[in-house]
Amino acid sequence: MAMRLLVIEDDDEIAEFIVRGLREEGFVVDHVTDGISAWHTLQSSEWDVVILDLWLPGQDGLAVLRKMRQANNATPVLILTARDSVENRVEGLNAGADDYLGKPFAFTELLARVHALLRRRTGLGGTRLQYEDVSVDIASQRAERAGQPLTLAAREQALLVFFLRHPEEVLTRTRIYEQVWDERYDGMSNTLEVHVMELRRKLEQHGPRLIHTVRGRGYVLSRSPTKEADG
Questions:
Q1: Tens digits of per-residue pLDDT, 182-223?
Q2: Which of 115, 55, 56, 112 is nearest to 84 (CA)?
């Protein structure tokens, strides 16, 4: 799937700034505003990076972090908070945080730290996804086919990452919308079809078709179409 980030932040203005910026960079981003909701959300899905505020209603961020690590959840966590003393940083890192960024902050630094955390995940399966001659480095966001760079829009990139994470698996339109677009599927919209068509066009400039339509179901990334696929 596309890189999934969870932002746990109760300040609406800061959260909107972070979420909007990360989505523009091609990430799928969810946002919760309190510690109790954060814990439920962390249990209900998998995330590539968690951005965690410490001052949260319901349950503070350190308690959420400790529960994550006690549950053997190794998702990288970037603490983002106004508590920026040496003692606070040491406490957060000892609780299991991977990085610490004090408020106020520049979005470019936040983004760089997120990319750094993604690069560190090499021990959890690596940052490079590949199928046949198509690859994406999920940390640098560099996409290639047959050694040639692909210039992809953010949603095309996210879509390609999702396909690469689920090769030879039929992906329904509903599932793609929910996990790539983070939206409910609107059966009347052709947005997905347009993005798939454009992604195919760019991929097929350097090789044969790999993304096939499965009639009545969705799409599949495969070297050859299934019996249900129409190319």
A1: 666 666 678 889 999 999 999 999 999 999 999 888 999 998
A2: 55
Structure tokens belonging to residue 229: 């696929």
Place of tokens 């198509």: 134
Structure tokens at 173: 């339109």
Domains of the chain: 4-123 (3.40.50.2300), 128-221 (1.10.10.10)
Going by the DSSP 8-state scheme, the letter that residue 3 receives in this structure is -
Q: For 60-75, how does the pLDDT look when each residue is reduced to its tens digit (9 = 90+)?
A: 999 999 999 999 998 9
- What does the DSSP 8-state code read for residue 137? E
* Residue 53 burial class via C-beta count within 10 angstroms: exposed 0-12, middle 13-18, buried 19 and up: buried
Q: Which long-range contacts (CB under 8 A, 24 or more apart) does 172-181 make?
A: 172/217, 172/218, 173/218, 175/218, 176/218, 176/219, 179/1, 179/2, 179/4, 179/28, 180/1, 180/2, 180/28, 180/155, 181/28, 181/155
Token pair, residue 126, equals 């690596």
Smallest CA-to-CA distance from 120 within 71, 78, 68 is with: 78
In single-letter form, the type of residue at position 170 comes to V
